[in-house]
Each structure stands twice: as C-alpha cells, then as structure tokens.
Amino acid sequence: MEENQLERAIRLAVKVHKGQKDRTNKPYIFHVLRVMMQGRNLEEQTLGVLHDVLERSALTAADLELKGFPPRVLKALDHISRRKEEDYSAYIDRVAQDELALRVKLHDLSDKMDIRHAKELDLADLKRYNRQLAAYHKLRRLAGEAALANGQAETQGRSI
Q: Where are the alpha helices (DSSP H) in 18-87?
C-alpha cells in the first residue's frame, strides 16, 4: 500500500497541475517532481509531490483523506499549504511548526531558488528570490536546532 501511496500521489499531482506552467514557462509538474525526488523517505516524497495540490486546485485535505493519504502527510500538507489571507512571514512560521513540512519546504525553496532554470531575472524575481532565501536560511536554522535537540534527547535517553 505504501508504494501505491506515492504512485497515487504522483497521478493526482499530474492531474492537478496539467497545463500549469512555472515562471520559466515550463510544465509546473517538473518542479513538483524535483521536490519529490529530494525526499529522503516515503513521507517526504509523498508530501513533496502533493505540496502544491491544495493551493493550485479546489481539492481539500478532506478530499485527500478520502483518497487514503495518511494523516501524518495530511497534517504536514496543512502546514506547507499557504492560505490566501496569510502573509509570507506568518506562513513560514507555520511551516516551521511541523518537521516534515519544514523539510519539504526546504526542498521546495531549494528548487525555486535554482536560477539555472531562468533565462534572466527582473526586479520582481530578485525580490522573490531574496524573500525565499531568507525563508530558506530561517528554516535551515530551525531544522538544525530541531535535529540537535532530537540528537541530545536520544543521547540522554541512552545514558539513562
């Protein structure tokens, strides 16, 4: 069932992103698949391929729950999906509240900031890139702190 989970997520993402283009006029699904490929495990890969589904379709988390996606992925999907009324800083703070969402958002930002995909950058691109870069560094710092705390907790648990 788990392997099927990723296949179902890919099929859903392909359907949702059909005809959508990125800023360089390439199929948006390429970005989604690159984010998925950076995932280190099934949860990260599944969230990576689904990370823009709620923002770019009429689907809801309840719809995805009915499709059999696991609660852990859906919880992280809620954190990684930006809400219309939410400013970017508040959004990044909310992403940081979920470790899985944080890891996948780092993959997402890493791909979005890869300027090799662009032929040229205008002022709006540079502003967006700087905002994404600041978010990336904030999330990297928080991920490092969480990893350190988890490592210390594991070390303390073994010494007891």
A: 28-37, 42-50, 61-66, 71-80
**Residue matched to tokens 């702190």:** 145
The torsion region of residue 68 among left (phi > 0), alpha (psi -120 to 50) and beta comes to left
Three-class SS of residue 4?
A: helix
In this structure, what token pair is assigned to residue 114? 């890869």
**37-68 per-position pLDDT tens digit:** 999 999 999 999 999 999 999 999 999 999 99
CB 45 within 8 A of CB 39: yes
Burial class (CB in 10 A: 0-12, 13-18, 19+), 38: middle
Q: Cβ distance 95 to 102 under 8 Å?
A: yes
Backbone torsion region of residue 157, taken as left when φ is above 0, otherwise alpha when ψ lies between -120 and 50, otherwise beta: alpha
At CA 82, angle to CA 84 and CA 93, rounded to 5? 120
pTM of the model: 0.88
From the options 3.20.20.210, 1.10.3210.10, 1.10.357.160, 3.40.50.720, give the CATH code of 2-159: 1.10.3210.10
